[in-house]
Specification:
single chain, mainly alpha
């Protein structure tokens, strides 16, 4: 009887402490997705500080699928570029370099950061790389 009670108590403690197999809870996922949606809306409205804050929250909470995580980093990089936080923006792009699902968008965002840094040659190379994947991407006027 003692053995059964010990096992039940241990199982209860694990449940109480939230011991999981490393997966996010449904609450964390909903929080992250909500923060992403708010960040996207803020970005589209031109409120880049709010976008950066909400996208940071979405990334920090975790629970987003890999594609949405990468998109969060790219949107945050664009927001940070608009805010003049170019080193932070480049760090975001670098964080998703290996797993970016949309390589054209990755290179375009990277090109925008390089252009904001004044590296026209690097920006042009990034845009050319983006255009290899998506011919509809146009060079910014500053690179023509």
């Amino acid at each position: 009887m003692l053995h059964s009670t010990t096992i039940l108590w241990f199982a209860f403690c694990l449940l109480l402490l939230g011991c999981t197999d490393g997966q996010q809870s449904s609450t964390e996922i909903a929080t992250a997705e909500g923060a992403y949606d708010q960040g996207l809306a803020a970005f589209e409205a031109g409120d880049f500080q709010l976008a950066e804050d909400q996208l940071s929250r979405a990334i920090d909470v975790g629970g987003l699928n890999p594609d949405l995580t990468a998109e969060s980093y790219l949107l945050r990089a664009e927001s940070r570029t608009k805010l003049g936080k170019l080193d932070d923006a480049m760090a975001d792009v670098t964080a998703v370099e290996e797993g970016a699902p949309d390589l054209a968008r990755f290179h375009q965002v990277r090109g925008n950061i390089l252009l904001a840094r004044g590296d026209k040659e690097g920006a042009k190379n990034a845009y050319e790389e983006a255009r290899r994947t998506d011919r509809t991407i146009k060079l910014p006027d500053a690179l023509r």
